[in-house]
Amino acid sequence: MSEMQSVRLDSWIWAVRLFKTRSAAAAACRAGHVRVNGTPAKAGQRIGPDDEIRMRVGGVEKIVVVTRIVGKRVGAGVAAECMIDRSPPPPPKEILASVPRRDRGAGRPTKRERRELDKLRGLGT
């Protein structure tokens, strides 16, 4: 069996299970969340071995180096052999838990909520 020399970027990142669907991989490329060797990449860009791919997936930056080209979706064990993961370690859970967040779509704080926040921060009178 002959090895492929290059494959589409969106197809490869979907095949090695970095995205759930190929359309999600293509959308990330269109949005500018994927870079190949430091330059923004389009979904149809051809990639080959030794290319470095940087992407933002779910707010976390992933850095992988291509070691093997695959065209079809493969199992997790084979996918791990197709790349070298050089992603930085995730931040500790204590730091993530300490950042206050409002529910998505909750809008601006009400006057009452703002006063409670000010009191919590020690700014209230």
Any key phrases for this structure?
single chain, 125 residues, alpha+beta, five-stranded antiparallel β-sheet, two-stranded antiparallel ribbon, 20% strand
Distance separating the two termini: 75 Å
Strand content: 15-25%
Shape from CA axes? elongated
Tell me, rounded to a whole number, the average pLDDT.
Answer: 87
Strand element count: 7
Helix content: 25-40%
- H/E order of the elements? EHHEEEEEHEHH
Largest sheet: 5 strands, antiparallel
Radius of gyration from the alpha-carbon trace, in angstroms: 20 Å
Q: What low-confidence regions span 5 or more consecutive residues with pLDDT below 50?
A: none
Number of helices: 5
Structural class based on helices, strands and sheet pairing: alpha+beta
Strand order of the largest sheet: 3-2-5-6-7
